[in-house]
Amino acid sequence: MSDFVTDLLDWMEALPPLVAYLVILGIAYGENVLPPIPGDIVVVFGGYLVGVGKLSFVIVVLLSTIGGLLGFMTMYAIGYAVGDAVMDPDRLRWIPKHQMQKANDWLGRYGYGLVAANRFLSGLRSVISLAVGAAHMDPWKTAVFATFSAAIWTFLIAYGGYSVGENWELIAGYLRDYGRLVLSLIVVGACIQLVRLYLKRKGRGTR
C-alpha cells in the first residue's frame, strides 16, 4: 500500500468510533466520485476494526452501503444532466471515453443488471453511473439496484477484513489482484470488439 493509505488507516484506527464511522461514510461516497480514493481498502480495514471490538459490523456495512449509493447517484445525476455530452470527444475530457463506450455497450445488453453488478466491476463503477444517468434510466430502479450491489459487495469485503483479523491486508491484496484481472478482461474484450469491427468493415469493403 502507498504511504498515504497506510497513514490514513493508522489515523483512522486512532479515531473515536463515531468519527471513524463518518470517515467510512465519507470515503465510501468519495470513491465513486473520485475513483483514486481507496474506498474498498477502508471498508476492509473497517471489518478488521470490528474484529478488535472498535466498531460495529452492521454499522460499517450500512454506512459503506449508504456512502456507495450516494456516490453512485451523484455521478448518475451528473450523467443525467449532461446527457450525450459524456461521449463527445471535445467535451468533458476528464471522462474516459473508451471506458464510457464499454459501459454503454454493456448497458445496452444488460440494462439494470449492469447497475446491480457495478460494485464488482473495479475501474468502471464511476463510468457506469455516468452512463446510466446519461441514458436517463429510472432513478428509483437505479437506486434500488445500486443499493443491492453496494450492500452485497461491502458485506463481503467487510466480512473478509473481520474474518482474517490482523491479516486484513491479505484481503486488500486480493482486491488489487481482482481489480487488475477485471481491467485486463475489459481491455481484452475491447480489443476483440475492435478486431471484429475492423474485420466487419473490411468485409463490407471487399464486396
Task: Walk me through what this model shows.
The protein is mainly α and 207 residues long. It has one domain. It is built from nine helices and no strands. Helix 2 runs antiparallel to helix 3. The chain is elongated and about 65 Å long.
H-E order: HHHHHHHHH
How far apart the termini lie comes to 55 Å
> What helical percentage do the residues reach?
over 70%
Number of strands: 0
Rg is 19 Å
Shape label? elongated
Largest sheet: none
Q: Which blocks of ≥5 consecutive residues have pLDDT under 50?
A: none
Topology readout:
Layout: H1 3-13, H2 17-33, H3 39-51, H4 57-82, H5 97-110, H6 112-117, H7 125-134, H8 139-164, H9 169-205
Quick recap of the structure?
The protein has nine helices and no strands.
Please name the defining characteristics of this protein.
207 residues, mainly alpha, 9 helices, 77% helix
